[in-house]
Design brief:
heterodimer, A: mainly alpha, 4-stranded mixed β-sheet, 14 helices, B: alpha/beta, 4-stranded antiparallel β-sheet, 11 helices
């Protein structure tokens, strides 16, 4: 047992001394987590969606500015930090006390064009008056138009614009209700609710983190097994073991333990970073997610053994791993949904054990809908492990062939 | 002379074929405790296959191995506990440190010598903390010897231990092997260096094409060729009249790849004859040397080839 533990420990040490292993096993997953969190999750405090918009009230100086003030206040309210348990949706840019609104408008237009602002809301002069007149039936509502400027083609800007439109529609309705001009019966009943963690929305980092952890585990299995075992075989490092009382079985146990220890290290690092820097809250150490993580690590190790069994040399094994790595990652739903694909790609998706493991893991963490039957998320990976054991037992050469 | 020691290793009619190639064709030999038993032969003679069977890497097609008094078809784990092996092309994880390698291999055995002792024995104390990948060829080979010694083995297999090393590194290893022999270890050595066999062994067997073609101590075998001295000198080519004049002077000439070889039963007479012949035919006796027959000559006389062809 000492021999197994020692080999296991020393294997891990050698991996941590090799720059290439350090890069792919530790640095790269961290990089992916940081990059994707920064792009899609917003860094640090900004893990909720938040838009910078400009608000220009050209009607402020009017005698009865009731309606324009109402619009302005509605946006100001949405821009208050954590107002009434709601997350701050907008960061508002308004002209300073002394600033000319027209000059400010020019400035915000430019900021919008350059992408510093997501949208600009313009309340035209005479707005309150026109609305008032319209309510009394002496003018058309159409003449009282709040202008919305946004950047066409910029998805962030378009999204901000559609939210602003909704806010304006809501205001519209409130005004009409007040004036008794609104028929509630005409409203289509609708309600929305979040699916996911108890305290609200599923944050992107909580969705992403389990995926990145599996990606890191996959690297260990796919590249690690052919890379280190076949290398050691071809360099006659293994042969040196076989002329001692140390056996293949003991070696296998030691190697697997070292790989699992590496997985634990990756998990600890990614989890610490995900929760520390990006506020991830997924309970990765809970019993069920823990079992899925273990199953994943073992399944990927098994896949590595299949590759090693089918390759003549370490280099050939690494090439096979390279070919498999990308489709296994991207046709699994680790990073993006995999719906609407051509049939040929669907076949890969459903043969890919990663698809099942990531689905099972996300459901167990309550950050995914679960598109697959729950039993399949355990049975399919187990089948792959069985295939690996059968193939490796028949095909894997433990010594160089002369 | 000391009385004959116990037989530690006995091999009987060992055979191994790879496809149609008979690598080892029914060889038998025995090695006594405390001796250095050398298998000498050219590349492809079957030396390494023989050793790999004895080390437990390969299984013989037929034949019997008796090790430490036990007979077996293949080497057992219990036997491995008492053996040390230096593989011909074995290596170690490049990112392990020297002392880690030794500790790792120590943990494979029931009984092991302290790592410091091994480091001392193979003169790697100052390299204990170095990564394997930073070692020189000679240092790597000393580490390999150290690994073969971690379990204080009774029997040590050394498969071409000095191939590819510079003369200094080779001498360093030889002195380690001599110390082992003094410590009553039994060494089974393969080599294609005649000097190595002569320097280290008590018993040499010469192998060619999978069979043993001669066996005995180095001196015994050389003596078997007679008491003739051997005179050599370099000469690109000899015209036939010069060659026949030499034979007429009673000197049997062999011309071997630019070197003229003369077997001289009486050295004084032969030298006198040679010198007058050389003067007459204007032959510069480049690199003239006189020596006693060695294992190379034994091999040459048995096979008509040189060892390193």
């Amino acid at each position: 047992m000492t021999a197994v533990l020692r080999l296991s420990y020393l294997s891990l040490r050698t991996w941590l001394r090799e720059r290439i292993t350090l890069f792919w096993s530790l640095f790269f997953p961290v990089f992916v987590l940081v990059l994707l969190s920064a792009i899609f999750g917003g860094a640090d405090e900004e893990r909720y969606m938040r838009f910078h918009i400009g608000l220009v009230n050209l009607d402020r100086e009017a005698e009865h500015a009731d309606f324009s003030n109402m619009v302005e206040q509605a946006f100001a309210h949405l821009a208050e930090p954590k107002a009434e348990g709601r997350e701050q949706l907008f960061v508002l840019n308004t002209p300073g006390e002394e600033e000319d609104p027209e000059a400010f408008l020019d400035r915000t237009r430019e900021a919008l064009r350059q992408g510093h602002l997501a949208a600009v809301v313009v309340i035209p002069a005479g707005f309150s008056e026109t609305v008032g007149a319209a309510l009394h039936g002496t003018a058309a509502f159409l003449q009282a138009e709040v202008k919305l400027l946004y950047n066409h083609g910029d998805s962030g800007s378009e999204l901000a614009a559609s939210i602003v439109e909704q806010v304006l529609a809501d205001l519209n309705r409130q005004v009409l209700v007040q004036a008794n001009l609104y028929e509630r019966d005409q409203e289509v009943p609708a309600s929305s609710s979040w699916v996911g963690t108890a305290d609200g929305a599923v944050r992107y980092v909580d969705f992403l983190l389990p995926g990145v952890v599996l990606m890191a585990f996959l690297t260990n299995g796919l590249f690690g097994v052919p890379g280190s075992i076949l290398y050691a075989r071809d360099e006659r490092i293994l042969r040196r073991y076989w002329v001692t009382p140390f056996t293949v079985r003991k070696y296998l146990v030691a190697y697997s333990m070292a790989t699992l220890a590496m997985c634990a290290l990756q998990l600890a690092l990614l989890w610490a970073l995900g929760s520390g820097a990006f506020g991830a809250r997924v309970p990765l150490a809970a019993p069920l997610p823990g079992l899925y993580l273990l199953l994943s690590a073992v399944t990927f190790l098994a896949l590595g053994f299949i590759i090693a069994s089918l390759s003549k040399t370490a280099n050939a094994g690494m090439s096979i791993a390279n070919i498999l790595n990308m489709p296994m990652l991207f046709l699994s739903g680790i990073f993006f949904p995999v719906t609407g694909l051509p049939v040929a790609l669907q076949v890969i998706v459903y043969a890919n054990p990663v698809t099942y493991l990531v689905d099972g893991l996300r459901v167990s963490l309550d950050v995914g809908a679960g598109k697959l039957p729950p039993w399949s998320t355990v049975v399919v990976p187990l089948l792959w492990i069985a295939v690996a054991v059968a193939v490796a037992a028949r095909k894997l050469q433990w010594d160089v062939d002369q | 002379m000391s009385k004959p020691r116990e037989v530690l290793l006995r091999v009987t009619d060992l055979k191994k074929a790879y496809g149609h190639v008979q690598a080892v064709g029914g060889i038998s030999f025995q090695a006594h405790r405390g001796s250095v038993f050398t298998i000498l032969g050219p590349n492809g003679a079957g030396k390494t296959t023989t050793l790999e069977i004895l080390e437990g890497i390969r299984v013989a097609d037929s034949g019997e191995i008796e090790l430490f008094g036990e007979t077996a078809r293949r080497v057992t784990e219990q036997m491995k506990q008492r053996m040390g092996v230096l593989l011909q092309e074995g290596s170690f994880e490049p990112y392990l440190r020297v002392h880690e390698v030794l500790k790792l291999f120590s943990s494979f055995f029931d009984h092991a010598v302290p790592v410091d002792e091994v480091l001392e024995r193979v003169a790697l104390k100052d390299k204990a903390g170095a990564l394997v990948r930073t070692l020189s060829g000679g240092q790597k080979q000393r580490l390999a010897v150290g690994v073969a010694l971690v379990n204080d083995p009774e029997l040590v297999f050394l498969d071409e231990p000095t191939t590819g090393l510079d003369p200094q590194a080779r001498r360093n290893l030889w002195s380690i092997f001599q110390e082992l022999q003094e410590a009553d270890k039994t060494l089974i050595l393969t080599t294609h260096y005649m000097e190595e066999a002569e320097e280290l062994s008590n018993h040499v067997c010469i192998m060619d094409h999978g069979t043993i073609i001669a066996e005995g101590s180095a001196e015994e075998m050389a003596r078997g060729l007679g008491q003739d001295s051997i005179i050599e000198f370099e000469v690109p080519e000899l015209d036939s009249s010069a060659a026949s004049a030499l034979s007429a002077a009673g000197l049997a000439l062999e011309h071997d790849d630019g070197t003229a070889v003369l077997h001289a039963p009486e050295l004084t007479k032969a030298m006198a004859g040679l010198l007058s012949w050389a003067e007459k035919h204007d032959v510069p006796l480049t690199n003239l040397s006189v020596r006693q027959p060695n294992l190379e000559d034994v091999f040459l006389s048995l096979t008509g080839r040189r060892l390193r062809e």
